[in-house]
Amino acid sequence: MAKWDNVKKVVLAYSGGLDTSIILKWLQTELDAEVVTFTADLGQGGELEPARAKAELLGIKDIRVVDVREEFVSDFVFPMFRANALYEGLYLLGTSIARPLISKHLVQIAHETGADAIAHGATGKGNDQVRFELSAYALDPDIKVIAPWRDWSFKSRTDLLNFAQDHQIPVPKDKQGEAPFSVDANLLHSSSEGKVLEDPWAEPPEYVHQRTVSPMDAPDEVTEITIEFAKGDPIALNGEKLSPATLFARLNDLGRDNGIGRLDLVENRFVGMKSRGVYETPGGTILLQAHRAIEQITLDRGAGHLKDEIMPRYAELIYNGFWFAPEREMLQALIDKSQEKVEGEVRLKLYKGNVIVTGRRSDQSLYSDALVTFEDDRGAYDQKDAEGFIRLNGLRLRTLAARNRR
Amino acid sequence: MAKWDNVKKVVLAYSGGLDTSIILKWLQTELDAEVVTFTADLGQGGELEPARAKAELLGIKDIRVVDVREEFVSDFVFPMFRANALYEGLYLLGTSIARPLISKHLVQIAHETGADAIAHGATGKGNDQVRFELSAYALDPDIKVIAPWRDWSFKSRTDLLNFAQDHQIPVPKDKQGEAPFSVDANLLHSSSEGKVLEDPWAEPPEYVHQRTVSPMDAPDEVTEITIEFAKGDPIALNGEKLSPATLFARLNDLGRDNGIGRLDLVENRFVGMKSRGVYETPGGTILLQAHRAIEQITLDRGAGHLKDEIMPRYAELIYNGFWFAPEREMLQALIDKSQEKVEGEVRLKLYKGNVIVTGRRSDQSLYSDALVTFEDDRGAYDQKDAEGFIRLNGLRLRTLAARNRR
Amino acid sequence: MAKWDNVKKVVLAYSGGLDTSIILKWLQTELDAEVVTFTADLGQGGELEPARAKAELLGIKDIRVVDVREEFVSDFVFPMFRANALYEGLYLLGTSIARPLISKHLVQIAHETGADAIAHGATGKGNDQVRFELSAYALDPDIKVIAPWRDWSFKSRTDLLNFAQDHQIPVPKDKQGEAPFSVDANLLHSSSEGKVLEDPWAEPPEYVHQRTVSPMDAPDEVTEITIEFAKGDPIALNGEKLSPATLFARLNDLGRDNGIGRLDLVENRFVGMKSRGVYETPGGTILLQAHRAIEQITLDRGAGHLKDEIMPRYAELIYNGFWFAPEREMLQALIDKSQEKVEGEVRLKLYKGNVIVTGRRSDQSLYSDALVTFEDDRGAYDQKDAEGFIRLNGLRLRTLAARNRR
Amino acid sequence: MAKWDNVKKVVLAYSGGLDTSIILKWLQTELDAEVVTFTADLGQGGELEPARAKAELLGIKDIRVVDVREEFVSDFVFPMFRANALYEGLYLLGTSIARPLISKHLVQIAHETGADAIAHGATGKGNDQVRFELSAYALDPDIKVIAPWRDWSFKSRTDLLNFAQDHQIPVPKDKQGEAPFSVDANLLHSSSEGKVLEDPWAEPPEYVHQRTVSPMDAPDEVTEITIEFAKGDPIALNGEKLSPATLFARLNDLGRDNGIGRLDLVENRFVGMKSRGVYETPGGTILLQAHRAIEQITLDRGAGHLKDEIMPRYAELIYNGFWFAPEREMLQALIDKSQEKVEGEVRLKLYKGNVIVTGRRSDQSLYSDALVTFEDDRGAYDQKDAEGFIRLNGLRLRTLAARNRR
Fold first, then answer.
1. In terms of pTM, does the model score above 0.90?
2. In this predicted complex, what is the ipTM?
């Protein structure tokens, strides 16, 4: 392919599935390039060894299978949760936050192996192509990024399957027709999009859901848990210290069982159209509530309000693929500065889709019953101060009212 | 009282309860002022006629009992919901939004009756004094606002009860001790604060809740509803056109029965301390989800993101009592401009605390399956465009990466 | 040209200069399209009739020459100045604000004449292509926009001149070599870019400047003027009521003579690179200072601060070409709401590059010497109020300090 | 004085002038408190030794005279200039930024000396009381802050002078009448307020200005300078490395001589009223332009725009006295993160009030003529990319236009 004439070696984000196997072969045949595969364990579930075997079968010499779960949670998920990030008020950014990590590894492997390009399997209509590519460009200005879905000449599913057949790529039975929806998954969430979900008036069928039971099918009993935080990140569950990925996996199990974290959303893609997705973020949904609860007693009002005001921008940057952009890093510096004393314990009840905060406590608490009590506060607060406070806050409004009456 | 020497006539926000009855009598005796009472039906529940009777008993000549429910919902609640307003990410501002309406009526009645002051029963530690007073000052720069809780010399509950007894104010049996918590209610919400809630680690007792069943006690069956919107406001429920207050009351009933809208929050007061409240906003919680859902298909991305970014500021203004401030009105102009075509229908399932959006449709929809489909879109979208889009979005990041590598 | 095969009639933004004449001929010959020309008098200076004559010479039947100066100032420049808009802190957006007006007329003429496309002469590296095209798309989703600089196969200036010669397009002597810089001009400003300006360390040569004398060459005498405002817009100069464009032209003359409004800037283009420009905005620089001065006494603090906070976003939207986007219109609604009582008079001194505000007065003034005076204010302000004001503003800081000391 | 009954030792911010001498004596006589004086050299000009002598004369045992100029510029002025901070678009915050430094020293000395209170000479109408007190409370939650102007019973200037006479405080001849305006000065600026400036329509008399010649009186010759930056701060002037305070003093001299940095402003005070001030910030005005210029070539667009958007909030926090609040520190973390590579050189011309940037260069430049040139860029930028960029940016606008046409 003329466009990629100079490409000699490509690092491919490889899942082992049919689509990325076709891409692998297309890179070999159309570009005549050597392919290095990178398969990441992001906690998506399922074995990775079959991906290795398949890559071998397709003639790959340099196969990288890496467990990045701890890195994913420590360096990407937790920093994002410090911000209470929600895109368009509702979406916990499960897909968005994984893409920069993958690009980071692809670029690193390119550097290690002397590859001149990386490749991904995202289509030309979605956000993921943007996230992969902006991340790669921010890490290496000269890297080439190949997005075969935008370049190849296949016009239909049949073309793809024919190509697979021509190149001895095994096609699983259930892939011979078109999937009723497409899925992305990692430790933070599963998302489902497309076909059966394309009518935003039609309720998502139950079978679309990947990793949560329905609230209606969840147990009738309440599950009570505690989460402990330090510097804004969860560090223990029910009193047990756990590594980031282990803790997150436990929260996912708890959320799954209790029907927590489903979201049916029509969102605005960065590439300009609206799309409908079904997201399941069981552990993240619990974590968001718990994090807000511990912030409630440990974060100053000025700090908290500033965080809330910049949050939509921060979430938008992540959604749009600007994780490695300086403005995201600047916002992160602001957020991290606020989290230094966000520590303590939160108690929650999980019940049929509900995450109910029932208590929070901290050695770093800013809550003071002495100040707030209806009873005698022994001088902690002088109610007379309120009069001056209100009068000076109101002075400009009174001046304005007097002017408007003139 | 020297401070209020010139006050001759006062309009009092009068609930008919013990506290405002004591205030009424205190205004008569300490200030030697004529008192006009204003009792508003904000949908708080309970009869208002007893308040009229009690005012008569206490010698009031000019007694105003007004049903302001439609005004409350049309002119205050709905405009606020157009913004998806949440204070500190969670609180639906049920108390905050009612205060400016009450002040507006107090000031109007003052003008009608030639009163030179208004009075309210909010304490010196809370936000409500600020909201009442800033609203009043913004509407009349010369109005005097009397906050007896800040001025009188009573030191304890016993002092208050003694004063009541001395002035033939009936004290209901259940008011002779101190209340385990205090309540504010209107059509939008009930809030509970104080005493049994003052330890933020202790779970709120079930009996604190005023207007919702617990999710655990809600029916095992799903309730499905539809809400229709026009210009950002709900206009019909299950196909039936309803007035704002009627519609809201119906949503409250639906929410109450399904355990929807409870919130246990530690929040930051404008007067500077943290306080813990339990809020119940059954109808509002449903409405917020439904409004976001109809916006998802009818609001442009740029419009929606701008709204999300200014929302925390808007909510803070309302919380702090600046409803009648020019910056709130400017933000409202911005928000209202965005809502012109926010219309259509949302379908939701209510189930044990869950509000589950299952569909949305609109004649003004911006959602296009032609654009988003995985299948052949017949040219609606050219995937090649994505390459240029990404490359130019990435140009500055590549320039930066090249610089940083130098 | 295959890409534009279906185009039958094109409305071209035509200046009468060499470049747009080549475009005109290219559209006729390469696309075999009928061309309608639109030449706007935006106050750029110079005659428009030669453009008409040249279009006739090139065989155009439908020639539109329109004086849009009043529309430009009333509907674009003044609304923008209500916001005190500055891009990147310094740039008055003189080019950016003219582009949507031109697109609006191009699309209107396309509708009137049944044209299926519009064309402009902006290159593929700049912001103007974006502004023209986004404006057009926002006004007509089906319009085709042809940007010949991106499409044609000319590789060099020589290719262009050869094409001109081949098609009997007269080439003025001074256009036979390459220009040392390129210019855009309208009633608001002149900009110069390119070649001699490309080294940001090299001082712009004096001959680059189009419409201002150097501060060093301006008169030694001060010129004093007054500007009167209503609803945020200037309506009179030195007591004389003038139409928007006339008033603006007068301000330009005053600024030009006094060396006002030069700017040497390296800015960030929307398409991703930095560029260096020299801008001259004589009248606009005066107007900005005057508008801020009248706002100082007529605008409430809350309103003013909100305006200041959203201003960078507003300016960025205009710079990037989103004039007709809903978020710009929402921000405009917010801004316009604030300007209702921005009226009164400002006095300024103009002197060798300086715009010095020396006074402002208004019937709608919010300034009160009674409040601010160091002398006896007869009770307008109670200094005791400040204590409570400070204590409650400081309460959270004290709580924090106590926590941090623990 | 009952209110301060428990105060035994007070640290007073002492200028040596009449007003703070009266306060000193008032603290001794009315509070019967031991007084420690703190006199800071902030670069306000004038000798400090007379203040020491006068304090001795008034019986002070513990007299602290400290040169804080380097600390002031390094830890307060430069961090603020990294943000390009302007309050209400124009004011360089010269008074605001000095107050927290003074409070910091007062509190430190209180800790060293076992004092239980600090005292300042700011009146009850201004912002400075707020700045002093919020800073103190943020550093020591238990510190008492005495503001004698709010507490004492003097009703007039005559009362003050009588008190001075009664207590053998020398009253300079020129202080026997009332000053025609009041002044604050430090290395960053001088401000003048009050009396002759109270009518915002009246031009400030020339004699009000403290530290700049009028532009009209400045030399006819241009002065050309260069400023070198590292990490966003100036480090050298005309090639000479200088300490922060020395460099700043030199800039002040240059600004003073060339009539630079005068501002006549009506601003909004935090305590609620508008006031008119005349500010002179000669060096700061030069520095702001120079800093923006070096940012223009070294700061990424995303970083720069984010800084511009948060700047008004940052400036407001400083103006209102929240220097030591967590939200200011969070914003500072964001700003400082952006400045890591803001380094290089700026060349400026100073001429009769004008600060004219004529060049900027940096080893960390992000400016690329290869990208921006009108001439052949040898493939650095592909103009075809612009088409996709525009089309996807315009997609939502076209969708909207199509909807609105339905």
1. yes
2. 0.96
